[in-house]
Write a structure and sequence with these properties.
Distance between the termini: 10 Å
Helix content: under 10%
Strand order of the largest sheet: 1-10-4-7-8
Number of strands: 10
Largest sheet: 5 strands, mixed
Mean pLDDT: 91
């Protein structure tokens, strides 16, 4: 809903994945923050982990660099996690599957979900711009 300052996006559709998966490039048109909702609906058990990262893209070389990584999640049941990035926020530790980072969102960025091993996870990553 752009008129109200929020722009919803689908970063990764729900699918089974066994390897680290980045979203596509995300343009940031004059927004300062972003949020993501990692919805895990199937997992390989509690030994393997997923880590959500926010990456900036160098417009010259096309190289990506991780500017923040949220704590790894290792679960034996399905769960959802919310990640919130905005320069006006007060940073928090993960509480009830919610964490805040005090950062601006770059002009071109992507989310990346890092897998610790080759087990099958099913998840989606939705969210938006603030």
């Amino acid at each position: 809903d752009r008129e109200r300052g929020v722009e919803d996006r689908t970063f990764l559709i729900s699918a089974a994945r066994t390897v680290t998966t980045p979203s596509g490039d995300q343009p940031n048109y004059n927004r300062m923050g972003a949020w993501a909702f990692l919805n895990i609906t199937a997992n390989p058990g509690g030994v393997e982990t997923l880590t959500a990262e926010l990456q900036v893209k160098d417009p010259v070389s096309g190289t990506y660099l991780t500017i923040t990584a949220f704590p790894a999640v290792a679960i034996a049941t399905n769960a959802a996690y919310v990640y919130y990035v905005h320069p006006g926020n007060v940073e928090t530790l993960a509480v009830a599957n919610f964490e805040v980072e005090q950062l601006s969102v770059p002009r071109i960025f992507r989310w990346r979900i890092v897998h610790s091993a080759g087990g099958s996870w099913t998840y989606s990553l939705g969210g938006g711009m603030l």
